[in-house]
């Protein structure tokens, strides 16, 4: 031990030596003053008493310094225990005496910094909790074991059972979609999303679950009840209006066709006007049919009857059944790449997809003189495509081309009688199959529409298809 503690011990040692030396000197002098042989035992006694006295003083001094050092160290031990127990207000409060005091002061300074840091963290945590509680979305955090770590007030309000910290998520929320999204994010370490309809009666939530650095998951539930209700009202309105329009339009078309086919000679203007009426009635009838189809595929009740079928069979069947679309044009409908891989598909629904894509190619790709339909293998999927060699599509339209009623060339669409719904219908049918649809095009190089379908499982042909997002993950 060095420094001031060593100095104290060294001074104590010198003091004991000085006392012992003084006692010995006193005894020697007495011996010299009483040099008679009979006085030797007195000298021995004085020497013994002096030695015992010096030893006693040394023991007392040592005990005093040892007890004081032990008491000071014990205060440090108690301080450390309080810090370990979470009491950051604990202090040793030593003066500036020696090295032990320096250690105690350093520990006090460290505890003060820790207390300040924890106070800052607690303040920020309270701010974050207040912010999350003020959100309209329900937020819940789950640890790596699937237990609730934290949830905001909105989640507490919609959870069927009280969501307590440390409780298993399944005991607080029994919605299968929420549990599936959280489990997917936990197991794969990637964001997951879904839609929940049974968290709270009559309410619909979009779910977004994302992994956290500590291995847990944070799930956010956004209430889309009003949006879903408005969307359903829109679909119902479109369906009802379309149904109501079909009957009068059919009657108009029928009567006009009857008049045009009558044996009576009609004046030229009358026949022309009847032709215009028939053309527009047919166009309106087609629009109602497309609106009904779109309302059907957009509804949550739309299901495809998927079964294993060869990709080449789908392509050849589409070319054979849709060949009439190109009969009155100068276009050739031909097959290109082909594969015999089995996919899960509803053949009737896929024929409608091919029909919409081929019809689109006929309208906008006449300059190319050719339309190619093909299929090729991808990992876990088969990619189908319809390619034309027309003028192509400008890049600013590619992101919106699958929106309903969106037209790249509005003038040409009106001239050709397009409704702007064919690609939107195709998109929803492909999504219902667990695939994705996209378009690639450059001006002057034509356009190619591509969509994927999942491969049919080898051992379980009736298993539900896996989405491309899940397969890619």
List the helices and strands and how they pair.
Layout: H1 3-33, H2 40-84, H3 99-133, E1 138-142, E2 148-151, H4 153-158, H5 169-172, H6 176-188, E3 192-196, E4 205-211, E5 217-223, H7 225-260, H8 268-298, E6 307-310, H9 311-321, E7 332-335, E8 342-345, H10 347-364, E9 370-378, E10 381-388, H11 395-398, H12 410-416, H13 422-432, E11 437-441, E12 447-454, H14 468-472
Parallel strand pairs: 7-9
Antiparallel strand pairs: 1-2, 1-5, 3-4, 4-5, 6-8, 9-10, 10-12, 11-12
Helix pairs in contact: 1-2, 7-8, 8-13, 9-10, 10-13
Could you characterize what this model shows?
Helix 1 (3-33) runs antiparallel to helix 2, helix 7 packs antiparallel against helix 8 (268-298) and helix 9 packs across helix 10 (347-364). Mean pLDDT is 78; it is low at 459-473. The protein has helices spanning 3-33, 40-84, 99-133, 153-158, 169-172, 176-188, 225-260, 268-298, 311-321, 347-364, 395-398, 410-416, 422-432, 468-472, and strands at 138-142, 148-151, 192-196, 205-211, 217-223, 307-310, 332-335, 342-345, 370-378, 381-388, 437-441, 447-454. It is 54% helix and 15% strand. By secondary structure, it is of the alpha+beta class. The chain has a 5-stranded antiparallel sheet.
